[in-house]
Amino acid sequence: MFMKSFKTFTVSLVTVMMLCLSFTALANNNDNKQTGVAPATTAEKEMTRLAGDEFYQKVQDGQKGYTTSQSMEHDVLVSHPSEAWYILKEKWMSPLGAIAVLGSLAMVSLAYIIVGPLKLSKPRTGRTIKRWSRVDRALHWSMAFTFLSLAFSGMTLVWGKHFLKPIISTDAWGMIIYGAKQYHNYIGPIFFILLVVVLIKWWRKSIFKKIDLDWCLKLGGMVGKHKGSHPSAEFSNAGEKIIFWMLIFMGIVAAISGFILDFPIFGQGRRDMDVSNLAHMISALILICGFIFHIYIGLFGMEGALEGMVKGEVDETWAKEHHDLWYEEMKAQGKVEDPKV
Ligand code: HEM
């Protein structure tokens, strides 16, 4: 019943999001076609009224003015080299990013509908093995919460003007976008601290070995002709190791670029900010798409996976089927526990 509702929910969600984006894009296109020129923003109109046409034209042309501030480029209000950044961000990154995120959501929905969840092939034995300590679980869920809230506030900052702004009042929009920006600025550094702790704590079990290649070639035994074949794996399988290193490397890029944007007080100019902004968007999008698959597997794609991250223990059958080498190691050390004894 729950799974059926989830199926209907995800298919409807993806459809509604795609329709919203297409309608917004169409609406914007029509606006520009009707007038023939890009409409002046309220800020532009206000600026022309206060400073006069001639002055505003100079500002628009990127000419230098006068200010008592000594900081780099403070005497230029409109920076023309930044147009390349604006075009890359608004005309390329923003729509391509939306396609990537919606595409990932569509892929996991299709995987659920067509391939279905990977069930245990043998009954549970009731004997359990400790997989994640209390500290590990606290670390994982803090990281998951921080990452997901940063992802949602970040997506609101990039796409909110297309899907949220047109349907709410200006005051509500102002409050939401201000809140999202502040939240993103303050929580970003916490994500970085958690990322460092995750790296220190879990890097050892994420080192690639020869056996991981076989796991990859058989696509983890999750799809195709190898479905249900359960290729050998240690504590972490190749898929988890890939996700782990993607998190570390892309997380570091997102964190460093985020710091450059968060603290513009170390002499960084507009070009540094442009590059950082693009690097921040690309790394965050790669992470968001990657973790859509991780979350799908954790929540719906694999029977028994979530138990380990919630209770800390997994069933013997799950361990044997998904992490056979780790299971053998635990058994040899006498760590398979029978709760009835
Ligand atoms: C609702 C959201 C999420 C769910 C349900 C979930 C579920 C899980 C589960 C079940 C595992 C354990 C897999 C195993 O025992 O082999 C796991 C591991 C892990 N998760 Fe998540 N997760 C979520 C979000 C996230 C997020 C947002 C991040 C990072 C930003 C993350 C990072 C990790 C990492 C690094 C591991 C360890 C993988 C390894 O190296 O073995 N998770 N997750």
TrEMBL record:
Q: Which cofactor does it need?
A: heme
Q: Where in the cell is it found?
A: Cell membrane
**Top-level taxon of origin:** Bacteria
- Is Lipoprotein found in the keyword set? no
Could you tell me which residue ranges the Cytochrome b561 bacterial/Ni-hydrogenase domain spans? 131-312
Coarse class of the primary localization is membrane
Signal peptide location: 1-27
Could you list this entry's UniProt keywords, alphabetically sorted. Cell membrane, Electron transport, Heme, Iron, Membrane, Metal-binding, Signal, Transmembrane, Transmembrane helix, Transport
In what way does this protein cross or attach to the membrane?
Multi-pass membrane protein
Tell me where the transmembrane regions lie: 96-118, 138-159, 183-203, 242-266, 278-299
What is the protein name stated in its UniProt record? Formate dehydrogenase subunit gamma
**Native source organism of the sequence:** Vibrio algivorus
This protein's gene is called fdnI
